[in-house]
């Protein structure tokens, strides 16, 4: 069974893109068939995979709006072993077009329908906003992965995201679950990070991934080489952490499965 995971948090710079690219590579290294969908007009995931975001040919825009089949727009990345649906600034135009459309929340779900059976995991890198692109991701997804940087304002905005998830559960996607909250850029020497990390555990319990993603310079450097950390420096702490996350994720899905409802709590 395919699992479609939206990686979402309307805060920018919390590690959504880093998580998408590195988790995709780690899942692929675990012999999972993976499609990464870059739904952010900034196209950072596309660049981080070594793809020219302004290349000729299909991008997420065409697939999202149904102008071309998604199968014709995706790319196979030989070195890293997963597929990418590239994204770029055209997605901003797609956002405008969607706003004027009927059933504007359903476009990504429809675009993915034709290829869904070809993958074990589809990861969607969301823009830093609760806009119609993110809503499309949440409607298409089975679960949401929420990267959280453990700092003072970490929980600010989480309530708005959880409210959006509840609204989508109540309308377009009853089965949407929170797959997990992921603590990113974690520095165990930082007391505040430890406090916020513990606070997340007490509010959200098992919905917090046990795997912690450390702050690691290799994770920050790898995108400028167009590679996931696993293919840039496979023994780096960052690469190892994302390998551990991939194992945890696969284990969770194979055992009890994710918690189906949104936990109470928040800010
Ligand atoms: P988002 O997609 O949520 O905006 P990014 O994944 O682009 O966040 O991360 C923001 C910045 O932080 C990027 O420059 C990225 O390279 C860097 N970064 C992300 N995760 C880590 C990490 N664990 N250690 C060090 N740098 C990181
Ligand atoms: Mg991003």
UniProtKB/TrEMBL annotation:
Protein name per the record: Cobyrinic acid a,c-diamide synthase
Homology family: To B.subtilis soj.
Sequence ranges assigned to domain AAA in this UniProt record: 3-178
PANTHER family assigned: P-LOOP CONTAINING NUCLEOSIDE TRIPHOSPHATE HYDROLASE (PTHR13696), PARA FAMILY PROTEIN CT_582 (PTHR13696:SF52)
Pfam families the UniProt entry points to: AAA_31
